[in-house]
Amino acid sequence: MTVLERIKKHRMIGILRGYDTGDALKIARALEESGFNVIEVALNSPNAKETVKAIKDELGDRIVLGAGTVLNTEDAGDCIDAGAEFLLSPVYSKEVLDFASDKDVLYIPGCYTPTEIYNAHAAGAGMIKVFPAGGLGAGYIKDVLAPMNELVLLPTGGVTPDNINGFLDAGAAALGISSALVPKGEVDGSLLGDIRTRATKFREALEHEDQKL
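Structure (tokenized):
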């Protein structure tokens, strides 16, 4: 199964942003133990590349690990070397797309308008992050896909257990989830317990919808 297929099967990417290596590793463990096993480490976090390596070294194939906020080829190469299996960005870069393609690594650029989304798709992006999606809603995803249903979209921003199935029903392939899954705060037993509960709520929301099909 390819990385893209694993993301589409899991339907969720959990985003870790702003945590140092030790705290991010604790959070990644809590997510994996809760059955949430596709994780992104954002590069605008302390020692992010070291964090990617530490998480991959410990959790290995139990998770699919990506690096986020990848804006240039230097960072892309460093993250791949550290163990990242896919790369995400809030914007689209043809240079990063070509670099990742040469390395046979999935690159998920961030786009907003239908033109941006289509241009990234036409250039070879296998999945496109629709960002920021919070203010757009599921209706926007449905409208974009209506004439271009071959697109593989990852709405990110504002995703919760209450609206995740609305996005999926609209045609999204998967969702990027940040603060609704990993809230800010001191990474102690209380926060880790909260993260496990939130991860379970997201999984239960998907399972409940699956049972209705």
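The mean pLDDT is 96. The beta strands are 12-16, 38-42, 64-68, 86-88, 106-108, 110-111, 128-130, 153-155, 175-177.
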